[in-house]
Automatic annotation (TrEMBL), chains A, B:
Substrate binds at residues 14, 41, 107, 130, 174, 274, 370. NCBIfam families: DAPAT_plant. Involved in the synthesis of meso-diaminopimelate (m-DAP or DL-DAP), required for both lysine and peptidoglycan biosynthesis. Catalyzes the direct conversion of tetrahydrodipicolinate to LL-diaminopimelate. The gene is dapL. It catalyses: (2S,6S)-2,6-diaminopimelate + 2-oxoglutarate = (S)-2,3,4,5-tetrahydrodipicolinate + L-glutamate + H2O + H(+). The keyword Chaperone does not apply. This is LL-diaminopimelate aminotransferase. Gene3D superfamilies: Aspartate Aminotransferase, domain 1 (3.90.1150.10), Type I PLP-dependent aspartate aminotransferase-like (Major domain) (3.40.640.10). Keywords: Aminotransferase, Pyridoxal phosphate, Transferase. The lineage of its organism: Bacteria, Bacillati, Bacillota, Clostridia, Eubacteriales. The keyword Transferase applies. InterPro entries: Aminotransferase_I/II_large (IPR004839), DapL/ALD1 (IPR019942), PyrdxlP-dep_Trfase (IPR015424), PyrdxlP-dep_Trfase_major (IPR015421), PyrdxlP-dep_Trfase_small (IPR015422). Belongs to the class-I pyridoxal-phosphate-dependent aminotransferase family. LL-diaminopimelate aminotransferase subfamily. Pyridoxal 5'-phosphate binds at residues 71, 106-107, 130, 174, 205, 233-235, 244, 274. Pathway: Amino-acid biosynthesis; L-lysine biosynthesis via DAP pathway; LL-2,6-diaminopimelate from (S)-tetrahydrodipicolinate (aminotransferase route): step 1/1. It comes from Ruthenibacterium intestinale.
């Protein structure tokens, strides 16, 4: 037995365990001090009422022989796939039911796509970026080259002339909150079409975009149906991090050397996956209904307003920041020349705020810091003032 | 971009679509004839009441800010892992909480294990057997060699002296319903320990075992903790095919060249998976509680009794059959020298019974046929008599 040696290429991730350890040590030293947790990347508001009602109805259906459901269709129930399709249609993006594959979330889908590609393909991974992109590529044996986000390009790097076969794009970005413009995404689509590359477009945060000129789907870009796959999720848009619902859209036109990737993905999913729980598919349908969307968008607006509060607090302090306008994330430069972990300690000690060191998102994140809007409104407002004071004192 | 060429090694599976097409054609020709579907591999009884109540309670928890749950622990909530651990303990098998990884089912877990092994490992796949074992191995690039089930070995093949690195074992077996004895599993464990092979033990049907002398877990066998992983599921034991809950037990002692497979699996799962929905984990906890098990075992007994009815109907007809005693499946030789599809047509036309052609489970299944106990009791009893008549007429 030979193990997959590519696991040796993975660096252990100490990001959140490191944060946890430091927070625990602080709490022990200062048992009476209340911390504001702005490092959290998880939703905190409860599920919307239409979603909860759908869960109850589905549970009752599963209790009666006439309405019980066992194995469902491999791609997902038509009612749920149609709900995703209609969500796209409302924004003028036409995707077909057969192009939509439901899943338990973006991590599973991204990971699953590694099965479709030969190991020699070069993966282009945003740095800073969601660590999963690099890790799944390394596990599968791909050479990994960073696409460098910088202050100069607003953490929205474009094609850099280097080779690439698998292109990860995330917009609005995690951790940066930066959103690609139509022109910037067009450049990536043209690059992919020219090279025969495949874009894996992570749209997990699209619901946070309120600027109508910004694209919410890669399929708003001409030619994307021939080079891109889009991965979506209800985790952040409808609070489904504990319910698990995502989807991948694989356009019919997406081919590599005459092979339709939709057919390969269907083969992969029907062999290695058994579908989303029936109650969760009903919950997703409810979240995407008119009443559900209205309720969910209130939560999205709440989180975004928190992020805007943090962003405003940094105004005039002289530190660079991005995100927070069309995203739950604010990405800031650490003041006073501090590195990510130094600023983590500083902010914890001085402002009683827990954030996330940017270095945890790749080498390009060193010297930066992520704050999120997923906390409580009043606590975030109070923390924003302490953040501003701390940044000014450090500058 | 180069695609994974191993997909070309996969044979398209026409088994269930072929069955569906033939049944539809029959129904069109004979609109008034009622068919009995004994081909189905899915549960039909509704969820047990404690499970439904748990789903309702979890939905209510998700509706309130104080009790809402977002991302859960990567391996699963302690309450659910402990429920699995306690289920093992009741049978005298000691597994630790940290050795249990919850998932959405056996297909995902089996598929995920392919990530851990280098491509040159030889996969030993039971023939006839669950087609997923071969497909996931081929996709990952492994050489695949069958382990041959035959009438002579009662469809319980042992080690055959050939090489093997990844050993798939399923007991009670699908499609054969045959159950390995302690001595037979011991031979496999000794083989694996000697060769440094890893056994992937699929225990999806263990709840159907009523003969106390038969092992329900590979970990009842001495030495298995050093060479085996066990994959379990509530799909058939608690009717969770539409709810999705499974688990993999990776013993601490399982190592390859000094690397603990538990650690690799944790890395794989935390990178490519986000956990089981919270309500489903609560449902699983309920299914594994005293009240839940009592209710679920009634359904298991119902399905098994159906299988026994079918098995009894074949008694004295002269055709070989196995399974049906400790399994929901009955595996029978086709009478009169018919091949699998000929017998399918014959049984459909003559007895109005839909079964599953054995050839769909691998070349070794040709000339055999699978019937299942997942149908309605009265319909199964009536069909059993028609089955017997048809077999006698064909012999």
């Amino acid at each position: 037995m030979e193990l997959n040696r590519n696991f040796q290429r993975l660096a252990p991730s100490y990001l959140f365990s490191g944060v946890g350890r430091k927070v625990a040590a602080f709490a022990e030293k200062h048992p009476d001090v209340e911390l504001t947790r702005l490092g959290i990347g998880d939703v905190t508001l409860p599920l919307a009422s239409p979603v909860v009602q759908a869960l109850h109805r589905a549970a009752d259906e599963m209790a009666r022989p006439e309405t019980f459901r066992g194995y469902g269709p491999e791609q997902g129930y038509p009612f749920a796939r149609r709900a995703v399709r209609d969500q796209y249609a409302r924004r003028g993006v036409l995707v077909e039911e057969e192009e939509i594959f439901l899943s338990d979330g973006a991590k599973s889908d991204l990971g699953g796509w590694m099965d479709l590609f030969g190991p020699d393909n070069v993966a282009r991974v945003p740095d800073p970026g969601y660590p999963v992109y690099g890790d799944i590529s390394l596990m599968a044996g791909h050479p990994v080259r960073f696409v460098q986000g910088t202050r100069e390009n607003g953490f929205l790097p474009g094609p850099d002339g280097q080779d690439g076969d698998i292109i990860y794009l995330c917009s609005p970005g995690n951790p940066t909150g930066a959103v690609y413009t139509r022109a910037q995404l067009t450049a990536w689509v043209e690059y992919a079409l020219e090279r025969g590359a495949v874009i894996l477009f992570d749209a997990a945060y699209e619901a946070f975009i309120r600027d109508d000129t910004l694209p919410r789907s890669i399929f708003e870009i001409e030619g994307a149906r021939r080079c891109a796959v889009e991965i979506g999720s209800l985790s952040k848009s409808a609070g489904f991090t504990g319910l698990r619902f995502g989807y991948t859209v694989v356009p019919r036109q997406l081919e590599c050397r005459g092979v339709r990737l939709r057919d390969l993905w269907l083969r992969r999913q029907s062999t290695k996956y058994n579908g989303v729980p029936y109650p969760v598919q009903r919950a997703a349908q409810a979240a995407l209904s008119d009443a559900g969307r209205a309720a969910c968008m209130q939560a999205v607006a709440y989180y975004r307003a928190n992020a805007q509060t943090l962003r405003r607090a940094l105004k005039g302090t002289g530190v660079f920041c991005c995100g927070g306008e069309n995203s739950p994330y604010v990405w800031m430069q650490c003041p006073g020349g501090m590195d990510s972990w130094q600023f983590f300690d500083y902010l914890l000690e001085r402002a009683r705020i827990v954030g996330t060191p940017g270095a945890g998102f790749g080498p390009g994140g060193e010297g930066y810091f992520r704050l999120t809007g997923f906390g409580d409104k009043e606590a975030t407002c109070a923390a924003a003032q302490r953040l501003r004071d701390a940044v000014l004192a450090a500058g």
